[in-house]
Amino acid sequence: MFREYGVLQGKVDRFKREDDLDSPHLQIRVIDRNNAVWRVPVNVLSGDGSLLIFHRVDPLQSHPILASLSSLAPGFNLLPAGDRSATKSLDFLRAPLFDWPTGVEVAPSRPGANNDLQDSLTTELENLKAQGGDIFVFGEKFPKQGQPSTPRPSDVEFGTTQGVHQIHLNQGNPPGRFESDNGTFQDGGIILKLANRYVGLFLRFQTQWLPTDDRNGNQIPTSRQIPAGAGIGTIPDDGGGVSVSNPEIYIERALVNPIGADPSKEVVVIGNASSAAVDLSNWSIVDRNDNAEPLTGILGAGDSLRVTLSGNTAQLGNQGGTIRLRDAAGNQVHAVSYAREDAQTEGRYVRFIT
User: Fold this and answer.
1) Going from the N-terminus, what domains does the chain have, and what CATH number goes with each?
2) What's the rounded Cα separation, in Å, for the pair 175 and 177?
3) DSSP per residue over 27-93, as a string?
4) What's the CA gap between 278 and 300, in Å, rounded?
5) How far apart are CA 294 and CA 290, in angstroms?
6) Count of H helices and E strands in the chain?
7) Model pTM greater than 0.90?
8) Residue 22, class by beta-carbon neighbours within 10 Å (0-12 exposed, 13-18 middle, 19+ buried)?
């Protein structure tokens, strides 16, 4: 698990492509408001030669992370392991930022213009610079505290030995070399603050499978690969997988801000897109603080079920949060995110599109 995970705030100064096939990165030079210089290397090709899957979210909205960006200090903001949540850090699985079918496999380099991953990223960065916007980079700081820095050619060229890397999904790595990088609420990513909206740029490796366990972010027996453009029918169903991209049992709506006092009036509506009834015994609804509301009853085929939260366990904060649905085995079946703005109107359900 990353020991120095956090978010870097600053301005994009310049960037440089790497077009070789030996672990290429797009190198970004960021300068914060204290005039400190940072290097941000963004993976554009996996070490095993497979392509990365790219999710571009424009606009990025209805997510609790956005409310915290304006309060960040210049430079790198460290997020200790005990202080990570949907309102401060990224977790693609537990606090969704995008729909899985939006993922696209893009080659790192191709002849010509506007046809590879580095072209896509630099177009976004050029637009950000033109508007004078801020960049927020979530990832791991380097060098680690107490470790000597060994300057690389890019460090010399950019005039710095400090930076932020691991700008991608950081969970679901298979046993082996990168398993120690796994964790929850420590995914890497880039959020751009433009004049009138936010844009999210998120990457993941094909070798990272979901869902993952809530303790260490490791693969579990039901984990499966989520390919690019994963939608209905694109993930093999062997009877044991959990379809992260297209769950049959899902969170449909939620009454986050009921009229009057919230306790014992908040409602989560669960839908069943399958043709079979599901026994919800020992399932649970989980809030952003990991409090779980136990479920009971039968959810009929094609039906929806209104669950009124007791107010003693899971609660839906009006400042933004997440709602997760777990099955009887404790596996996450579905998760949704909502922002403070979504919860401002009393008595109105927030609708989640799946």
Assistant:
1) 5-225 (no CATH), 249-351 (2.60.40.1260)
2) 7
3) EEEEE-TT--EEEEEEE-S-TTSPPEEEEEESS--S-THHHHHTTPPSEEEE--GGG--TTTS--TT
4) 6
5) 12
6) 3, 22
7) yes
8) exposed
Task: Please state whether 118 falls in left (phi above 0), alpha (psi between -120 and 50) or beta.
Answer: alpha
For residue 205, the one-letter residue type is F
CA–CA distance, 151 with 23 (Å, rounded to integer)? 17
Question: Tens digits of per-residue pLDDT, 185-223?
Answer: 999 999 999 999 999 999 999 999 999 999 999 999 989
Dihedral (C-alpha) 170, 172, 176, 181: value to the nearest 10 degrees? 20
Contact 100/169 with Cβ under 8 angstroms?
no
What amino acid occupies position 18? E
pLDDT tens for each residue of 58-95:
999 999 999 999 999 999 999 988 889 999 999 999 99
